[in-house]
Design brief:
This protein has 187 residues and is of the alpha+beta class. The protein has five helices and six strands. It has two domains: 103 residues, no CATH class; 59 residues.
Length: 187
Amino acid sequence: MSEFNPYAPPRADVSFGRTPAGDDAGVWKCGKLLVMTKDAALPDRCVRCNQPADGLRLRRNLSWHPAAWFLLLAMSPLLYIIVALIVRKTAKIEVGLCEEHRARRRRAITMGWLVSLAGIALMLGLGVAVPDQYTGMGILIGVVILFIGILYGVIGAQVTPPKRIDKRFVWLSRVSPDYLAQLPAWG
């Protein structure tokens, strides 16, 4: 007699975790973009220059939403933040980085912090030590320097920013053409 149970859940050959890099690894090229499934493991190469990464992996929590939502910033920054948190798509990936690009990223983050702290110090120092007629301008310059430091650190720390994320796939930009040349075409 058959062991068929109509009330049993369906069985499927499903593997959880990262898929290995290879022809059917869930990693492709699409023009200048790298396309990958959210659970794919990227090759052990630097995504920026295609040099061996020697096992050095950078874990990234990516988030993305359509650019049209930025129009809400004109209406209300708080409304934009709330909506962006609701509509964003996320992915957790690991990318390989060579020691040179890892050091560049660390330098950009350090410089961002130093410039930001200089802006804060300028705001506080001028607010205390300078006569009243220059205090407003000094604080404004300090705020501008603070935001420049933040932007420099954030932009410099980005390795492969997402171009798009959906339920299953992640599209990454700023990937080395040599790295992409090793991958099969997507679609």
